[in-house]
């Protein structure tokens, strides 16, 4: 290799070195703001599923019982409340019954004072209901569905007293020793409805009686059935 060639190679190498140095200097001399600096990444919120609110249980209407004796306004049976009508006794001393009307078919007859009141510590609260031959009255509902353990809820004057059925019996219509009336016995709701064979308008061969004891808490649900549809007598 000639001296001229070696000198050219050296000169080329020097030129390349200078070019590289100048390029490096230019890169280092760029303003800081032109440089890309990786900063902290934004934190994205993680969606959370809110828990469904816990439903508040309905308070037990029977817990605690009544604070005092009271005049009943309604009695609930099979999940539906029906009005109460206070009725005088007839000339023979027999408790009165609701009128034979569409409204009367679904009304409780109640033998008021001096008979015991709901919430009283002793005595039978006397109520009755009509039975219709077409099955369209409150008495029919009782005959078809009221069973031992079922609860009836009596309300009135801001008071509530519940009664749980503990006994059912059927007696002849002219019976006088059924135990239906007992003003000094245990606190019970005594319920009467005509039953047996219908012998004429408003006349039936038997009476079915349910005795329901006063309770402080519901032993069994009272809302199992809805009443049958009302039909004309």
Task: Briefly characterize the structure.
With 233 residues, the chain is of the alpha+beta class. It has two helices and eight strands; from the N terminus they run H-E-E-E-E-H-E-E-E-E.
Number of strands: 8
| Rg value | 45 Å
User: Roughly what is the average pLDDT, rounded to an integer?
Assistant: 81
Structural class: alpha+beta
Q: What is the annotated CATH architecture of the domain at 74-215?
A: Beta Barrel
* Number of separate helices: 2
Distance between the termini: 136 Å
Which consecutive residue ranges, at least 5 long each, have pLDDT under 50? 220-233
Strand-and-helix sequence, N→C?
Answer: HEEEEHEEEE
Shape: elongated
The CATH homologous superfamily of the domain at 74-215 corresponds to: Sortase
Main sheet?
A: 8 strands, mixed, barrel
Strand order of the largest sheet: 1-2-3-4-7-8-6-5
Stated plainly, the CATH topology of the domain at 74-215 is called Sortase, Chain: A
- For the record, what CATH class of the domain at 74-215 applies? Mainly Beta
Helix content: 10-25%
- What proportion of the residues form beta strands (DSSP E)? 25-35%
Key terms:
single chain, 233 residues, alpha+beta, Sortase, Chain: A, eight-stranded mixed β-barrel, 8 strands, 15% helix, 29% strand, elongated, disordered C terminus
Walk me through what this model shows:
- The protein is an alpha+beta fold and about 230 residues long.
- The protein has a domain of about 140 residues: Sortase, Chain: A (Beta Barrel).
- It is about 15% helix and about 30% strand.
- It is built from 2 helices and 8 strands, in the order αββββαββββ.
- The chain has an 8-stranded mixed beta barrel with strand order 1-2-3-4-7-8-6-5.
- A hairpin with a 2-residue loop joins strand 7 and strand 8.
- The radius of gyration is 45 Å and the shape is elongated.
